[in-house]
Design brief:
Elements lengths: L8 E5 L9 E5 L3 H6 L6 E6 L5 E9 L9 E4 L1 H7 L6 E6 L6 H8 L6 H12 L5 H14 L3 H12 L13 E5 L9 H11 L3 E5 L9 H5 L9 H11 L1 E5 L7 H13 L4 H14 L4 E8 L8 H17 L3 E8 L7 E2 L1 H12 L7 H15 L10 H10 L2 H13 L11 E6 L4 E6 L1 H10 L9 E4 L6 E2 L4 E7 L2 H13 L3 E3 L1
Parallel strand pairs: 1-5, 2-4, 7-10, 8-9, 10-11
Antiparallel strand pairs: 1-6, 2-5, 3-4, 3-6, 12-15, 13-17, 14-16, 14-18, 15-17
Helix pairs in contact: 3-5, 4-6, 5-10, 6-11, 6-12, 7-14, 7-16, 9-16, 11-12, 14-15, 17-18
């Protein structure tokens, strides 16, 4: 049997960010493209000429030689970095074998129950970039629409946690907290961490960026400090400060979760089963031993009824117990945004006002943070049940929490992002006299995102009124801030159609 000699191509770095997806580029007139019968969007395997390194990528075909010329193989930024070869190096391409785990995805689409081996194979193939985004979307939609039994959620959690590194802090108590989201402005982590760390408890908080919200904890903390830190530096910071507030992506903790989130975000998918697996996999990989879960409940929150909240709590407790986490789940008031700011700069302002005991601080943010911190402090066997709140309040009011956050900021490296709100501003006013009956969480988040948050740190919404406040006609309810005219117009148009406020 005569084997064809593989034709080598010259690597070219193409300056395109393909966000969590490996993409390669071949010119339509390339000899390899014609001889091998490749098709656009098919999966190819890229190897160095010696065969020592290889990665998988989705193929894009170009007609513009300025992007990739015949005889070249273009690689997107992330793909080029992963392959780790210099520009101009020789590489070969071949058809990639379809991932064997796709059979399990097809069975899930048909409504079958999957076992741990199935989820482990799926997550491994996703991390190895063997899935196209459309295949990942099929998997996510199948899990969401056909449903997952609680044992399947456990299997997926373990598989996701095992897809990357797992930290062991060699500490008897590693505390953490997580809110399931859906409530704009809910930046309690940035208050809880310095309170708990100032007490001396170990709380390495690795947070995600926003998926469907105007800001995640990492987006807001980035206004104050660097959050993308190498694992060695992160370890040193936590050992010294007893806590941190960093983005979890650089630590390669449950990396399959970050890839799936990149697909979930444009689809606005956030099913309870996938959410539980995502949260607990990250916490297990991060080395947490004690975890507090916050489930806000309200008519426009992710969880809208007591029955749904209790079902979700039971699922968290079932999975948490079986992966060895000491878990406490609390159901909190999710009827309206927490604090005044919605968007990174505005939320960072609220956090600093609480830490500085500013008279203008948002009282609801302060109170919720104290309640959450008190529950975590009571994980400490030296703190009696019921004493956590008084202890948390004393740490906050004495300034120790502020000092701790400043120390964490200094250790992580102060941010150079301007703490200024967007230069374009429009106030939304009350149409008549009355009092605020409801505030739509989803609509307020939507307006803030249309204004440019979280990508534009100063964009968002600044609330002047909360539920129960009396208002007069033409009195401002909130202000929209944006940096760019197009975003500003979209946000103002959305607020005109639906302000998000209901007056009684």
């Amino acid at each position: 049997m005569i084997r064809k000699a593989k034709t080598s191509l010259q690597l070219r770095r193409v300056g395109i960010d393909t966000y969590k997806e490996n993409v390669a580029y071949l010119h339509r007139d390339c000899q390899v493209y014609r001889s091998e019968g490749f098709q656009a969007l098919s999966k190819i395997e890229i190897s160095d000429e010696a065969g020592g390194r290889s990665i998988l990528a989705a193929l894009n075909v170009v007609d513009d030689a300025s992007i990739t010329a015949p005889g070249q193989l273009g690689l997107s930024l992330e793909t080029f970095q992963q392959l780790g070869l210099p520009e101009g190096a020789a590489a070969t391409v071949a058809h990639a074998k379809p991932p064997t785990s796709l059979d399990a995805v097809h069975r899930k689409i048909a409504g079958e129950r999957l076992e741990y081996a199935d989820y482990e194979a799926i997550t491994r193939d996703i991390v190895e970039h063997r899935y196209a985004k459309i295949e990942m979307a099929a998997f996510l939609v199948a899990c969401s629409e056909t449903g997952m039994e609680r044992e399947e959620v456990l299997h997926l959690t373990r598989a996701m946690a095992g897809s990357g590194e797992q930290l062991d802090w060699h500490e008897p108590l590693v505390a953490d907290k997580h809110c399931i989201g859906g409530i704009p402005g809910n930046r309690t982590s940035m208050l809880v961490v310095p309170i708990v760390a100032a007490h001396g408890m170990f709380i390495p908080k690795t947070s995600s960026r926003a998926i469907t919200s105007p800001a995640g904890t990492a987006d807001t903390m980035e206004v104050l400090a660097r959050v993308e830190l190498p694992p060695d530096q992160l370890n040193d910071i936590v050992r010294t400060q007893r806590g941190c507030l960093a983005w979890g992506g650089t630590a390669l903790l449950a990396p399959v979760d970050d890839i799936l989130i990149s697909v979930e975000r444009p689809l606005s998918l956030d099913s309870p089963s996938q959410m539980v697996a995502s949260i607990l996999a990250k916490k297990l990989a991060a080395g947490a031993t004690h975890l507090l879960i916050d489930i806000p409940m309200g008519p426009t929150a992710k969880v809208r009824s007591q029955a749904d909240a209790l079902r979700l709590r039971k699922l968290f407790e079932f999975v948490g117990d079986r992966i060895g986490l000491q878990l406490e789940v609390i159901i909190t008031d999710g009827r309206q945004p927490i604090g005044r700011g919605i968007g990174p700069v505005l939320e960072a302002r609220d956090v600093m006002q609480v830490l500085e005991n500013d008279p203008k601080q948002p009282r609801d943010l302060r109170e919720k943070a104290l309640q959450l911190a008190s529950r975590i402090l009571e994980f400490d066997p030296d703190v009696r049940g019921g004493q956590g709140y008084t202890l948390a309040r004393d740490i906050l009011e004495s300034g120790r929490a502020l000092d701790k956050l400043r120390a964490i900021i200094a250790a992580q490296g102060a941010s150079d992002i301007p703490r200024e709100v967007g230069r374009l501003c429009n106030t939304v006013n009350a149409e008549r006299n009355g009092s605020v009956a409801t505030i739509d969480n989803q609509q307020m988040a939507r307006i803030a995102r249309l204004a440019g948050a979280p990508m534009d740190k100063g964009a968002g919404v600044d609330l002047y009124k909360k539920v129960g406040d009396k208002v007069r006609r033409d009195e401002p309810l909130y202000a929209i801030h944006a940096e760019f005219g197009a975003d500003f117009a979209f946000a103002c148009e959305a607020a005109t159609q639906n302000s998000g406020f209901t007056l009684s």
